[in-house]
Amino acid sequence: MTKNYTVKHGFSLFTDYDIHLFKEGMHFKLYEKLGSHVTEFDGKKGTLFSVWAPNADSVSVIGDFNFWNPDAHKLAPRWDSSGIWEGFIPEIEIDCLYKYAIKPKFSEKILEKADPFAFHFETPPKTASVVSHLDYKWDDTEWLNTREDLNGFESPISVYELHLGSWKRVVEEKGRFLNYKELAHEICEYVQDMGFTHVEFLPVMEHPFYGSWGYQCLGYFAPTSRYGSPQDFMYLVDYLHQNNIGVILDWVPSHFPVDEHGLGLFDGTHLFEHADPRKGFHPDWKSYIFNYGRNEVRSFLISSAMFWLDKYHIDSLRVDAVASLLYLDYSRNEGEWIPNEFGGRENNEAINLIRQFNKNAYENHKGILIIAEESTAWPMVSKPTEIGGLGFGMKWNMGWMNDTLSYFSTDSVYRKYHQNQLTFSLWYAFTENFMLPLSHDEVVHGKGSLISKMPGDDWQRFANLRALFGYMFGHPGKKLIFMGCEFGQRNEWDHNNSLDWHLTQYENHSGLQKWVKDLNSFYKNEPCLYEVDFSCNGFEWIDFADAKSSIISFIRKDKNSNSILVVCNFTPVTKENYPVGVTEEGIWKECLNSDSKKYGGSGCCNSKGMKSRNEPANGKELSIKLNIPPLGVMFLKPQTQ
User: Fold this and answer.
1) 169 HSE (CA, 13 A, CB side)
2) Alpha-carbon distance 394 to 153, whole Å?
3) Could you confirm whether domain 210-388 is CATH 3.20.20.80?
4) How far apart (Å, rounded) are the C-alpha atoms in residues 356 and 28?
5) Looking at the chain, which residues constitute the CATH 2.60.40.10 domain(s)?
6) Which residue from 393, 468, 472 is spatially nearest to 434, judged by alpha carbons?
7) Which secondary-structure segment (H or E) carries 511?
8) Listed residue (46, 35, 37, 34) closest to 8, CA to CA
9) 373 is catalytic
10) What is the pLDDT of residue 2?
């Protein structure tokens, strides 16, 4: 259809103060001003369009309503040199398709660009923006009022990381995606049953290439339309909150793809990205890098992060690839990067952005958590900005992940030579607020599945993986497990296919799944395992020196000095009457054992309580004697607790 109405000018959502904040890099709610907003002007309903394109000669709105004609509906530049173009088009309402036709000042080529602030997009591979709205009646007030405790450092946090498009599909319908509403009920039921406290979604922001898993996104204010509308995604978050499940989103401020309809060369110039490829192009991901020193770009990025907290009630953002933000020479050889003004490799502009974002997020949203995926030894990542930190709440412990997986991938015969890979993490475990990740990155790109990394025959592989999870839940730090790992997905993760849920009918797989479920339950009910995660006061070694037997033991403590003993055997050799030093007199009872037959183990356990003896061991005056199972992890408590 075509309509014979004209653009009306002189109507704006911006105040002079908004423009001041935008140009200063301090406007963190730009989504309320830029983009397409259904409203009324001069008594007529329609849509106000606003876009930042300071180097454009002309800008118009093209869409299905004007047959994509760039001459039909031209926007006007604001008078204030902000570079913003605006215009109100009557009768354009919800669900209209549109783009901006931008003619650069120094080119005759008209660029057709999607709206950087669109709330909704056509389903890829289509690329148009969609006029939308964010109206929704939330029912998660109770969750929001209590999440400060549920998201806190002294709370149990066990995260189930998943990719919405491949967690589960409808096999009977040619493997179609589940939509957001279907996912809400399916995920909620499963996560509740398994006992996880949070879910973490790989990026849901609209992305043109499905195979990027969302890490190459262009719609920084839009959940992908592959699974439904903005309101459908709100329903997913709302439903999870109503069932006491926290929601973490991956957010990617480090780079964006080069697709022609996207942010790159937006007005014919390097507007969002650095012009010099030594700063503006990522050699690994073949994508653009934001110009963090441009104030308007800073406003754009922080507005994006705040948008998901403000409008979608997200509880936590996990910031992707922080190391690539911090270092100018990240993944670059000599001569391929530009030093900062002091001659160093630190990206001071990005560092300022990170600190500003974290400070603003925590000041404006009670109970949220901002998590850094940061893989280097940069100091004070999870410390407050006031004392020189980056201001994140937590940091993924990539060192623990790499060392631990390397150790578990080693045949048990040789593990005695690699004991330090298990113990080294405790040297730095309390320097940051760490989360222990066994994430999607470890089961893709030829790395194989988690179960396939484990050595030995099939029984030993599952025993090893149960031991890995047991050790992880005993180790200080919050927990994260990627989907499928909890039941021993055998194939490497494939974003084009559903997880192999049929495997759970087999004993080894169902046993592993039951172990993770019981670990979560035990973990959430034992403050010793989560209350003092970020201080050495919550941890005490019993023995880390028995490398010959590949056995370690340690104590976890809560704020009241109650104790849980964790004993790990990383060889397939059972140890009988093995002496272990203990910190309290009385009877110690085995509470959880990964070698139990119900998990697929051999059944080596300590069914009766073990009374402490006045026989020194491991530097303690008291000890107990245990039967330690092969490739097993045990949790024990004194019965006085």
Assistant:
1) 18
2) 9
3) yes
4) 10
5) 16-130
6) 393
7) helix 507-525
8) 46
9) yes
10) 47
Q: pLDDT digit string (tens) for 107-121?
A: 889 999 999 999 999
Query: What is the DSSP code string of 163-195?
Result: -TTTS-EEGGGTTEEPPHHHHHHHHHHHHHHHT
User: Across all residues in the chain, what is the average pLDDT?
Assistant: 96
DSSP string, 322-369: HHHHHBTTTT--TTSS---TTS-SB-HHHHHHHHHHHHHHHHHSTT-E
Whole-number Å distance between alpha carbons of 342 and 360:
27
DSSP, collapsed to helix, strand or coil, labels residue 566 as strand
Per DSSP, 109 falls in state P
535: left (phi over 0), alpha (psi -120 to 50) or beta: beta
Residues of the chain with CATH 2.60.40.1180: 536-638
Over the stretch 379-436, which tens digit does the pLDDT of each residue have? 999 999 999 999 999 999 999 999 999 999 999 999 999 999 999 999 999 999 999 9
- Indicate which residue of 18, 206, 273, 320 is catalytic: 320
Rounded Cα distance, 183 and 167, in Å: 9
Work out the average pLDDT over 54-70. 96
The residues near 382 (Cβ < 8 Å, ≥ 6 apart) are: 372, 389, 390, 392, 393, 394, 395, 432, 433, 434
16-130: which CATH topology?
A: Immunoglobulin-like (2.60.40)
* Phi-psi sector, 81: left (phi>0), alpha (psi -120 to 50), beta: left
3-state SS class at 31? helix
Q: Quote the longest CA-to-CA distance of the chain.
A: 94
Percent of the chain with pLDDT over 70: 99
Residues 152 and 154: their CA atoms lie apart, in Å, by 5
Sign of the Cα torsion 200, 204, 205, 208 reads positive
**Structure letter (DSSP) for residue 498:** -
Cis-peptide into 125, omega within 30 deg: yes
Q: What is the CATH number of domain 536-638?
A: 2.60.40.1180
Q: Is the pTM of this model over 0.85?
A: yes
The Cα–Cα gap between 260 and 338 comes to 27
Mean pLDDT of 130-146: 97
| Mean local confidence (pLDDT), 479-497 | 97
User: How many Å apart are CA 50 and CA 48, to the nearest integer?
Assistant: 7
Which one, of 503, 559, 481, lies nearest residue 526 by Cα?
A: 559
600 burial (CB, 10 Å; 0-12 / 13-18 / 19+) is: buried
- Of 373, 403, 442, 584, which is the active-site residue? 373
d(CA 64, CA 130): 10
* Residue in 424, 353, 401, 354 with CA at minimum distance from that of residue 382: 354
Which neighbouring-strand residues pair with 87? Answer: 49
Q: Give pLDDT, residue 7.
A: 81
C-alpha distance from residue 432 to each of 8, 380, 381, 413, 518 (Å): 54, 7, 7, 33, 28
For 214, the token pair is 């969302």
The Cα–Cα gap between 53 and 83 comes to 5
**Distance (Å, whole) CA 220 – CA 263:** 10
As annotated, the residues of the chain forming the CATH 3.20.20.80 domain(s) are 210-388
Encoded tokens for 372: 């850094």
Rounded to an integer, the average pLDDT of 555-581 is 96
